[in-house]
TrEMBL record:
Domain of life of the source: Eukaryota
Gene name tied to this protein: LOC101867685
Cofactor(s) listed: Mg(2+)
Name of the protein described by the UniProt record: DNA nucleotidylexotransferase
GO cellular component, one term: nucleus
Keywords, comma-separated and alphabetical: Magnesium, Metal-binding, Nucleotidyltransferase, Nucleus, Terminal addition, Transferase
Entry EC no(s): 2.7.7.31
Free-text function comment from the UniProt entry: Template-independent DNA polymerase which catalyzes the random addition of deoxynucleoside 5'-triphosphate to the 3'-end of a DNA initiator. One of the in vivo functions of this enzyme is the addition of nucleotides at the junction (N region) of rearranged Ig heavy chain and T-cell receptor gene segments during the maturation of B- and T-cells.
Segments traversing the membrane: none
First-to-last residue of the parent protein present: 115 to 482 of 482
């Protein structure tokens, strides 16, 4: 262990990928307010202000101490006037009147409800809001609305999907995914990514990255997996997106661009052991057959060719902000372009390869 160095605000990088941040957040009362502000700007499609608050939240999550006076943020990056105003008010009043206003704002409240449904984004929310619709009850009552297959599933399994996925549930689903994938490709590498790989205890979904280190390629793997789940009655919803990756494709400069891997957005039926409370529950009216013994869980499966696995793992591990900053860092500080498929060196005009040395290990070891 190295000795603790004195904290120097001016040395803090503006890029989250250059800061070592733990899950232990000492500045939650600030970052919660920032995230509300950012979400409201996202709903207004004001990307610049949204990112300003997300970046500030990321910096305060990194700070090893709680901010108690304005002096504490002196010299830190990403502390613009809008951000400082919110911090100052929270220091003085204990809360932010702006964040409170947002929470009480009719448009924000509607967008928050609408976007909590799987398959509903800002665009759809905007459309519904303009139609005068305000709550999920309004949406369900309006029979003239044409919902997508995804949104129908979103409403059908709403209660399960809004309740967080626990680590235990993630582990249970992980077993199912591994077993199914390995029936078709015994050597396949199945890795949990997203928030759970970062050590989070809960998530909104479970993300899996699948690759096959061997020479065998199987373009049908994803289809076989979901077909088997269908047969087993485990699949509640699935949407397979085919890969659009072209060989010789240049990495994308767009910091928020989606990648071109084959992937599947699914909802799985996770069977849960029924809690036997018969000795406490003497009511004879409860028909145990009607007690739901499963939970709908959002699962993303991503298939990456082995040569691109390291980049895919980096991108899908997140967080969103970490990924954005990695790409910005690559472009502005290294004159390179990074996406979920490759790292491109603009000076040498070549695509760099990453060799995965020990694919058998869960975490892997990478060398560029
Ligand atoms: P969660 O599931 O809400 O607990 O949190 P995460 O971090 O698992 O987020 P999730 O599942 O939405 O996505 C996992 C990671 O994959 C995320 O941290 C960044 C990446 N990712 C997901 N969607 C996109 C996208 O549209 N564009 C880019 N560039 N990356 C994405
Ligand atoms: Mg996730």
């Amino acid at each position: 262990e190295s000795e603790a160095l004195p904290f120097v605000a001016s040395k803090v990088s503006q890029y989250s990928c250059q800061r070592k941040t733990t899950l232990n957040n000492c500045n939650k009362k600030f970052t919660d307010a920032f995230e509300i502000m950012a979400e409201n700007y996202e709903f207004k499609e004001n990307e610049i202000f949204c990112l300003e608050f997300l970046r500030a939240a990321s910096v305060l999550k990194f700070l090893p101490f709680p901010v108690i006076r304005m002096k504490d943020i002196q010299g830190l990056p990403c502390m613009g006037d809008r951000v400082r105003d919110v911090i100052e008010e929270i220091i003085e009043e204990g809360e932010s009147s702006r964040a409170k206003e947002v929470l009480n704002d009719e448009r924000y409240k509607s967008f928050k409800q609408f976007t909590s449904v799987f398959g509903v984004g800002v665009k759809t929310s905007e459309k519904w809001y303009r139609m005068g619709l305000r709550t999920l009850e309004d949406i369900k009552a309006d029979k003239s609305l044409k919902l997508s297959k995804m949104q129908k599933a979103g409403f059908l399994y709403y209660e399960d999907l809004v309740s967080c996925v626990s680590k235990a549930e993630a582990d249970a689903v992980s077993l199912i995914v591994r077993n199914t994938v390995c029936t078709f490709l015994p050597d396949a590498l199945v890795t949990i990514t997203g928030g759970f790989r970062r050590g989070k205890k809960t998530g909104h979904d479970i993300d899996f990255l699948i690759t096959n280190p061997g020479p065998r390629e199987d373009d049908d793997l994803l289809h076989k997996v979901v077909d088997l789940w269908k047969k087993q009655g485990l699949l509640l919803y699935c949407d397979i997106i085919e890969s659009t990756f072209l060989k010789e494709q240049m990495p994308s400069r767009k910091v928020d661009a989606m990648d071109s891997f084959q992937k599947c957005f699914a909802i799985l039926k996770l069977c849960q052991p029924r809690v036997d409370n018969s000795c406490y529950n003497t009511s004879k009216n409860i028909d145990m057959a009607e007690v739901k013994d499963w939970k709908a869980i959002r699962v993303d499966l991503i298939i990456a060719p082995f040569e691109q696995y390291a980049f895919a793992l980096l991108g899908w591990t997140g967080s969103r902000q970490f990924g954005r900053d990695l790409r910005r860092y690559a472009i502005h500080e290294k004159k390179m372009i990074l996406d979920n498929h490759a790292l491109y060196d603009r000076k040498k005009t070549l695509v760099l390869l990453v060799r995965v040395e020990h694919p058998c290990h869960e975490e892997g070891h990478y060398s560029v």
